Structure formats: structure tokens, C-alpha cells
Give the backbone structure.
Amino acid sequence: MDRLLARLSDEDLRERTLHLFKQAPDGQFVQKMDRAINRQRASQGTPPSQPELWPVLASFRRPTLVVWGTASDVLSEAQARRMIETLPLGELAPVPGVGHAPTLSEPAAVEALDGFLDKVLQVKATV
């Protein structure tokens, strides 16, 4: 694990840290993860490490809309922006004031999806 962390950039380390911790109202940082999950990992072991998925996103050659809830405590703005910068045909649809899993009934999500589908369908019709 130490070798993995040593290879990460400062930005990646910050993103991984903010994925695991959040700042409480008193200013202290606390774990986001449910302590029951930590107890389960302690008794059953940790799952295999997560694979590096940025190269997978970079190879994905289809129009992709990333619908991001701006109040998400799981996916930061920096991560969402990195996703669309990495995806060759990525587009970001921020949904203001919504947490990690915005529904497609949110007005901002509906508007973004309509515009995205219009663009994709127009391109497909000209090909």
C-alpha cells in the first residue's frame, strides 16, 4: 500500500483522502465510511485493491454524459472534471444542490440529458 501511495500525485492523494474523510461542522475531519464496514473488514479482511480506471475512461470512445450532484460527498468536482477531461467525448452535467445520486427528474439533469441526446442523435443522423 505504501508503494501505491508513493506513486500518486499530490492531487490524487488529496482526492483519495477526501473520498474517505469529510470535514465536520467543528472543523475536524471524520471518516465518511460507516464504522460497521470497518468492523467487517477487520473481521473478514479487506477486499482486493481497486484497479486504476483512468486508462479505461481514456479508451472509451462514445459520447458520455457525467451527471454529477454538486453536493455529493462521494464524487468531488475535481474528480468529475477529471472524468470528462479523460473521456474523449465526455460532457459534465452538474446538478446543483443534489447529493451523490441525482435522479433524472431533477430539472438540471433533465435539461442536460435532453441537450446531450439532441446532440448525439443529430451527429448520428448525419453519419
